[in-house]
Amino acid sequence: HVQLVESGGGSVQTGGSLRLSCAPSGLSVSDFSMAWFRQSPGKEREGVAAIRRDDLTAYTDSVKGRFTLSQDGAANTLYLNMDSLKPENTVMYYCAATTGLTGWILDSYNYVYWGQGTQVTVSS
Q1: Closest CA to 7 of 26, 21, 17
Q2: What gap in Å lies between CA 124 and CA 24, rounded to an integer?
Q3: Euclidean distance between CA atoms 105 and 83, whole angstroms
Q4: Letter string b/e over residues 76-109, b meaning 16 or more CB atoms within 10 A of that residue's CB
Q5: Of 20, 12, 44, the residue nearest 109 (C-alpha)
Q6: Do residues 24 and 43 make contact, with C-beta atoms less than 8 angstroms apart?
Q7: Of the candidates 103, 121, 117, 120, which has an alpha carbon nearest to the alpha carbon of residue 36?
Q8: Sequential DSSP letters for 30-45
Q9: Is the CB of residue 11 less than 8 Å from the CB of residue 121?
Q10: Between vectors from CA 115 to CA 121 and to CA 44, what angle results, nearest 5°?
Q11: Which helix (H) or strand (E) segment is 46 a member of?
Q12: Scanning 66, 69, 97, 120, which has its CA 20 to 30 A from the CA of 5?
């Protein structure tokens, strides 16, 4: 049984930082393509950052230079370091995993396993 558990969300002021963690059970982060998505109410889920099994990484343009994706195989955890946060980054963030990529790694349809999400709130 695969379960993805996110943590690290919270409230920060504009310009602040947070680190999100995704700790899976039932799978190894090094054997899966892993990603972070975000979703605002009424909007489609958007890919934020992803790492493929061959370590190719990708970021959506709006977070390049501010967000950093990493994974710790020994801890079996995926991280998303978020710096210079902006109020528009106030959304729910989700961790996702898959073994089968048929398209771009930031496309949500590729991912089979999803966490419950962690809320990030950035105040101005």
Answers
A1: 21
A2: 33
A3: 22
A4: ebbbbebeebeeebbbbbbbbbbeebeeebbeee
A5: 44
A6: no
A7: 117
A8: GGSEEEEEEE-TTS--
A9: yes
A10: 65
A11: strand 46-51
A12: 66
Sign of CA dihedral 19, 115, 108, 76: positive
Residues paired with 56 in a beta bridge: none
* DSSP 8-state symbol, 106: T
Query: At 18, which amino acid appears?
Result: L
pLDDT tens-place values along the chain, 124 residues long: 999 999 999 999 999 999 999 999 999 999 999 999 999 989 999 999 999 999 999 999 999 999 999 999 999 999 999 999 999 899 999 999 999 888 889 999 999 999 999 999 999 9
For 86, residues 6+ apart whose C-beta sits below 8 A from its C-beta are 14, 122
pLDDT score, position 100: 82
